[in-house]
Amino acid sequence: MSGQGCALPRLEAAGLDGWLVRLFDAIDEANLAWLMALSRRCEAAFGDALVDLVPSYTTLLVVFDPLRLEPAAARERLLALLATLEPDAELGEAAPVRELPVWYDPSVGPDLSRVAERAAVSIDEAIAGHSARTYRVFALGFAPGFAFMGSVDASLATPRLATPRQRVPRGSVALAGRQTAAYPVVTPGGWNLLGRTSAVLFDREREGFSLLQVGDRVRFVPVDRETFVAEGGDPTPMEEEAP
Amino acid sequence: MSLARFAAPARSDVVALRVRRAGPLALLQDAGRFGVRRLGVTQGGPADLHAWAWANRLAGNGWGTAALEVTLGGLELEVARDLQLAVCGADLGASLDGQALPLWQRVALREGQRLAFATPRAGLRAYLAVAGGFVAEPVLGSCACVVREGLGGHDGHGRSLAEGDVLRVAVRTPSGPAPTVPDDERPDYRAECRLALLPGAQIADFAGASLYAAFNARWRVDDRADRMGVRLTGPALRCRIETLVSEGLGLGAVQVPPDGQPIALLNDRQTIGGYPRLGALTPLSASRLAQCLPGQAVRLVALSPERALADYRRFRRGFG
Questions:
Q1: Are A33 and A118 members of one domain?
Q2: Cα separations (Å) of A242 from A25, A66, B73, B227?
Q3: Among A222, B117, B228, B309, which one is most buried in terms of CB atoms within 10 A?
């Protein structure tokens, strides 16, 4: 567990004020319980010296104030935490399930038919396939409240667009490879758009700010246009951009 | 990790400056937004921490006080009441009622005067701190202005200053004389600079010739440069790893995408990313890079963590 060897977990230097804890070498839902446990223990062990924590699929970036805690001391503290780390038991089936209502429709999900074609299924079957699973939030990033969720059924896996769109509308529900996500704000983006949710994914006035948190379970619930609009969704069709 | 750490002072603030002409980019920045990166929210804060810190220190403000980051110039402000301020960092041809404004020192301004920034003469970003500090409603614990995320700044919605905007200040007269800025703390931003890099975990995965090139080539600052990151152009660096599973990115991380051209990540970078990295620039080197204009030459120099920490401690001494 020391130095730059092959063994995991491993601490990697991440600048003057950070250690990247590499716990795993591949994406797996089981990683989360360990990453969440380590996050909580870091909060307790670092106290005021902790500046930020960035969990992702296989790693946790621990950012600390080097004026309060020497990098070498931070490393020792992390090694001690890792030596006795146990996964978060409560993360399993007890994690909250968030339901995101989605209006799956080609007018707001312009890639729906292509995803279905690739999988050699009908659009309805593609929708059923995407909404059948309960997904897990592996990481937040890219934009505030943008949750990377997995894993989509392998038959629906679709690579990113060769050229990202300039403007992906807020609420767009999308797929890239075997990952799925919903766009909290308007941004450029290269994921395949399947539909749109009326859920407000990031709200600065809300406790916790982001609707989805790392570790949450998420279900996409198909709704019709009427329900989508009644719940505050914006049904404005996508404008196709010039390639 | 408390969101309240950089809370704004009590509201006894007054309108101190009015925007008469908006430049391309002028953003209010406190030390940054911390404790929310796990939600995908970026750090923000001053791209040049060094000049921002000096402006605040000269104005008699504590660490973390919001100051104005003026990029490229073009901004014109009307002074709405008597106040004291300091401008540090880039020479953007700042003038007060048409007379050159001295940089790197505290200056007293009178109500009705006009403070104007022209165009870059040396460096890219100037920092304006007013004695007492700018006051804005914190968003997610900070008023650091991040345009892409629509967070922070003078109006809370991540906007650059526009004509007609007002800036509020908790006006206070600093006690005692302002410190003098030593000459070696006033960089010549036009000079070729050496950026100190702390090697990272993937450094050994770069081909030997690429490692040699990384630390011996003259890199050019590309025009694809903003508060998210600065692309450097030069010899193509080859890494055995093309992409990683996305992971957290620190300030100054130097990532190398498959085209082999490094990108140094600054304050508004995305929180996670999956390109291999040479390592991370020190905070002071990231600051220095943020002052480079497109076309400028830079070199990368490997530094030990011990030296980097000593340099950072020396810089922070005296900044409260």
A1: no
A2: 39, 49, 35, 28
A3: B117
B272/A144 touch (CB, cutoff 8 Å), yes or no = no
Interface of A with B in 181-200 (CB under 8 A): 185, 187
3-state secondary structure of A104: strand
| Residue whose C-alpha is closest to residue A52's, from B262, B107, B251 | B251
Q: Rounded distance, CA A169 to CA A239, Å?
A: 10
Q: Rounded to whole angstroms, how far apart are CA atoms B112 and B223? A: 37
- Chain B residues whose CB is inside 8 A of the A139 CB are 246, 272
Q: How far is residue B30's CA from residue B40's CA, in Å, rounded to a whole number?
A: 19
A15-53 burial, b at 16+ Cβ within 10 Å, e below that, comes to bbbbbbbbbbeebebebbbbbbbbbebbeebbeebbbbb
Within 8 A of B251 by CB-CB distance, chain A residues are: 15, 17
Chain segment B81-128, per-residue pLDDT in tens:
999 999 999 999 999 999 999 999 999 999 999 999 999 999 999 999
The answer to whether A209 contacts B308, with C-beta atoms less than 8 Å apart, is: no
A79: containing domain: 10-83
The per-residue pLDDT for range A100-123, each reduced to its tens digit, is 999 999 999 999 999 999 999 999
Instruction: Please give the class, per CATH, of domain B193-317.
Output: mainly beta
* Contact call for residues A219 and A100 (beta carbons, < 8 A): yes
Q: What tens digit of pLDDT does each residue of B152-166 get? A: 999 999 999 999 999
E-only strand ranges, A47-155: 50-55, 59-64, 97-104, 135-140, 147-150
Q: In this structure, are residues B63 and B320 in contact, taking their beta carbons and an 8 Å threshold?
A: yes
**In the predicted model, is pLDDT for residue A6 greater than 90?**
no
Within its chain, how far is the Cα of B280 from the centroid?
Answer: 16
Domain check: are A104 and A210 in the same one? yes
What residue of B is the nearest CA neighbor of A26?
Answer: B245
**Touching B: A residues 56-95, CB under 8 Å:** 56-61, 63, 66-67, 70-71
Residue B114's CB: how many other CB atoms inside 10 A?
15
> Structural domain boundaries of chain B?
10-185, 193-317
Predicted model pTM: 0.92
Tell me how crowded residue A79 is: count the other CB atoms within 10 A of its CB: 15
Which CATH number covers residue A71?
3.30.1360.40
Helix or strand run (H / E) with residue B315: helix B305-316
Q: What is the pLDDT of residues A19-55, one digit of tens each?
A: 999 999 998 889 999 999 999 999 999 999 999 999 9
